[in-house]
User: What shape does this take?
Amino acid sequence: MSMSVKVARSLLVWIWVSSLCGALPFAIVSASALQWDAHSPEMLIREAIMTVEDTDMLIGGEVNLDAFAALKAGSTVDISVRNGVVYSVGDGVHLDASSKQQISTNDLQLLQSVMSNMRYAPNPNFNGIDEIDFSAQGLTAALYIYVQAENDPPKFEFDSSEMNDWYKYPRMFLPSFRLDDPDKDQTFQVDILVDNGTLFVEQISTSAFDGVSVEFNSSLSSLRLTSGLDRLNTLFLQRLVEIVPKSCLQGTTPTSCAALIELCANDGFITYCEKITLPQQDVFYHVAVTSWAKSLNITAGSSLNVFEAFKIQQRFDVVYDLLLRVHVSSGFFRVVAPNCGELRDFVSADTLQPSNLLGMTQLTYVGDAACLNKVLTTIQLQSPYGSNATVVISVELLSEEMRLLANESISVKVSHKRTPIQISVVRTSGDELWLTSLDSYANLTSLVNVSLVADPETTIDGAILELSVSCLHCQWKYRSFVPQVSYEYAQIPSTRLGFLGLFDSLRKVIASLQLAVTNDSAAAEVIHLHMTPTSPLPGRESGSGWNSSTDISIPFTLNSSDLSWEAQRRLMFVQAPNYTVDLSDKGPLKGHCHRSIGKSLL
Assistant: This one.
C-alpha cells in the first residue's frame, strides 16, 4: 500500500451549546468529505466554533499553520464564506474584508501571517450556522460557526432634511422618522416625552390609527404608541405628533420656551432612546397691546374700537385656519360684518372651552392671519352705562382644534358719565289742586315748569334725540307743529306721544304740549317724561346709552259746575221718571218742567 494513498474520512460535527442555550443540543451539521495525503497535516485544528450575532471574532487560532507551511509555491489558498466575511489584520499584513479570498502560496511566511491573524464577521443581524470553506492544492476543509441570535435594539432613523427647520413653523410637528428593528414581528412601544410643553396628535386619518394604541398622561406631556413596526412607521412618516411648547418671557417679549423631546422605543427586551432639542424662539403668533391701551379709562356708555387697543402679529405669511375670539366681561359689542372671515353670532362664553369666560364673546373664523386685524376693525365695545367698574377685554387666537395660540387682555376703567341732558320739572302752583273739567285742555307749562338742561361738559350739537311724554288718565295734544321735529309717533289725541328732533326743537315741543283729564275717578294725574339719544343702528335698542327721565304727580279736581250738573242729571232721572226737563237755553219753556207720561229727555 502506497505511503501517499488517499483515504476518505467523514467528519461528523456535534455542537453542544449548553452554556448559551439552556443545555439543548443545537444541531448536527452535515459531514464534509475531506481528502488529504496520509502524510499531510489537517488544515484546521477545530472544525466547529461559536460566536454571537453581529460580533467580530478571531479564527486564526483554528487554522493549522503547519498544513499551510507544507503547501507548494505557485498556487493559491481559496477561502469562501456563506453568510459573512473574513479579513486579516496584524503582523504587518492587511487583507480587506470579503466573502471570498485568494491568497498566494509563493510567500509561505506571509501566508502564515495572514492565516494566523484571520478574523470572521457575520453579516449584520445574521444568526444560525455559517460555513467557511478552505481549499488549496487538492486539500479542502470547512469551519462551521454557530452564530447565536442576539436581540438587536430598535433604532430611530430621522429625515435629515427636516431636522434643521421642523420647529420654525406655526405648528411644530416632529420631523418624519422610521423605527428600525430586524425583529419586525415584535410589538413595539414608543414613548415620546417633552419636558416643557405638551403633545398633540393630529388625527387627519382615523384609518392610520387602526391597530395602534394611543395613550396620553394627564398633563399631555407624554405620549405612548403601541403597535407593530409597520403600523407605527405609517404614523411616524406622516408627521402627526405636534409639540406645543410653553410660553416664556425674554425680558418683556413673549417667546416659546426651549424644550427637550425624548423618544424611546422598546421591543419587549431592550429600550433605545434618542433626544431632540427644541430651541427657545419667538412665538409665531402674538397679540400685542398698544402702549396707550395699557392704562385706559373711558366713561360709561362710550364706545371703544377694539383694533385701536390690539394688534395681531406673525413671523411670516402662512395660511392656517384660525379662530379669533374677542370677549368683554360686561357691556356689549357692535359688529359690522367683515369683508373676510366668517362672522359668528354672539354666543354665551361659558360654552367655549378652555377659557370658561363669563360675559359676551364674538367669534370669527378666518382663513389666514392677514384677515385677523381686518376683523378687529369691525368690532366696537359699547361700555355699560351707569357702571363705575372695570371691564376686561380679551383677544384670543386659537387653532381650528380650539387650542390657544396667542392671547392678551386689557382692563378698562369705566367711570361714571354725566347725563348730557337733564329734565327739570317744578310744579308752578305748589301743592294746589288743578281745577279742571273733563276733556278740557290746559297747557303743560301752566301746570309744571318743564325745562331741558344740557350739561356744559358734554357735546350734543347735531345729536338726534327722542322725547316721549305719557300719562295715566289724560290725553295729549299740541298747539302747533315745531319745525325739524318728527311727529311720526305723535298722533293726537293720545296718552303717549313721541318726538324726534334736535335739542332746541324739543324744548319748543314741550312748550306746545297740552293735556286734558279723561277720567273723573282719579284724584291725581301722573306725567312721565323720558329723553334718550336715538338708536345707533336701525332696530337696535339704545339701552346702554344715556337717558334722562322724570315723573311728576299733579292732583286735580273737576270743576264744581260739572259736578253739580252731573249730580242733578242723575237725581232727576231717579226721582222723576214721568217728568222731563229741558235745561237747555232753547225754546219757550226755558227753566220749566212739563208733564210727559212715558217719556224722558234724559
Notes: The two ends are 176 Å apart (CA to CA). The chain has eight helices and 51 strands. Residues 290-415 form a domain with the Immunoglobulin-like fold (CATH 2.60.40). The chain has five domains: 6-148, 155-282, 290-415, 421-558, 561-595.
